[in-house]
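ok trying this again, last paste got cut off
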Amino acid sequence: MRRLVKSSLLSLFAAGYASFGAPLESYSADLEIEPVSGICIENSPGISSYGPGNVCDSDCRQVSADPFYYFDVDYLFWSRDSGSATRPIIGGPQALNYGGTGSDFESGVRLKAGAAFETFELQFSWSRIDNWNSTQSGQLVNGISFDSGINTSFAGANFINGTTGFRSLFAAAEFNPGGGPDETLEDEGLGPVGIFADAAPTFNVQYRSDFNDYEFITKFAPITSRIKFGVGWRHADLDELMSASINGTFRAVDNAVGANGGLSHAALTAANGGNLMLISGAADGFDDETGLLGGVGPDMLNLNERASTTNSLDGVQFSLDLLVMESDRFLIDTILKVGAYNNKTTGTFVETYSGIGNDNSVYGRTLTD
């Protein structure tokens, strides 16, 4: 087997090896050895030679000291440790939540480019996974209670409260200022309920996540070593979006004298109520079948909430590469990466409540962090 190594240092070593066994008196005190571009050593017993790379025959394997440039495309198959945090959207017999969405195995791509030198390597890579997403849609069987009516008129129905989604609507439906519209005099929600055989609410729940990863690393990587040590910089972006939308027929079932026949504008916008803003349409809240608050009832309602977050990580990263096995057709290696990163997070939460058909009122709010 022949090896050709383009290195002056190895050339000097091999030249000495090739001359081993020659009489010592044949050496001159002023011996100079011209550096050569490569060395070819024959492993046969008693035979050695050296010289420029072109003196080797076709069996001699050449290892060049010139930079080696490469470009790789990798297929990724990743899974997340967990999906979005489990948070109920509505409770009840047909409870909805975001838990477990977007945590399955998904595929992606990694592009890698680099330059390998005799003792070190420069590498840049970009990875992307953009199909961590899921969608749930369908129709409930029961209605949805907005307030404490879950214990009376809406008994056995689904519900929202202070621990589920659409909390602003729950706060508005429980509004009792002690001098204004008292929403506790009726049980509000989406039918069917009692004598109102409305079509059950429909729903759509979505989750989407995009991941982009950028790495630049310098590796101490001698061409004869199976181990590479690296240090570099890494930037990663993780964008997530969760949204839930529910459509249904609004009902307000009286439970005491003085009920106002709907969910009032005051209850929806008060700081100690829904704390929402009127975005568009009439400032008359939402009506049941009586139409007492204005217009014709009952109103069809769309409940929508949307949360998005962006995580940007930057930091230093260390790597350890180990070549486990190599052949002419494949190689097996393992890579360990550790690092310290700064995570900058921004989040936006938007909720809107829109009248459909008989009403054009739209209430909502936006929270950012």
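PB: full thing came through this time. DSSP finds three helices and 18 strands in the chain.
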